[in-house]
Amino acid sequence: MTVDALRSRRVLVADAFVPATVVIRDGRIDAVAPYDGEVAGTVLDVPCVLPGVVDTHVHVNEPGRTEWEGFVTATLAAAAGGVTTIVDMPLNSVPPTTTLEGLRAKQEAASGELAVDVGFWGGAVPGNVADLEPLWDAGVFGFKCFLSPSGVDEFPHLSPPELRDALAEVERLGALMIVHAEDAAVLAAAPAPPSRAYQDFLLSRPDRAETEAIGLLLDGARETGARVHVLHLSSARALDQLAEARAEGLPVTVETCPHYLCFAAESIPDAAPAYKCCPPIRDRGNRDALWQGLVDGIVDVVVSDHSPATEAEKSRGDGDLQQAWGGVAGLQVGFTAVTHEARTRGIGLEQVSHWMSRGTADLVGLTRKGRIEAGADADLVVYDEAAELVVDARELAHRNPISAYDGQRYVGRVVDTLVRGRAGATGWGQQLRRTA
Question: Whole-prediction pTM value?
Answer without folding.
Answer: 0.98
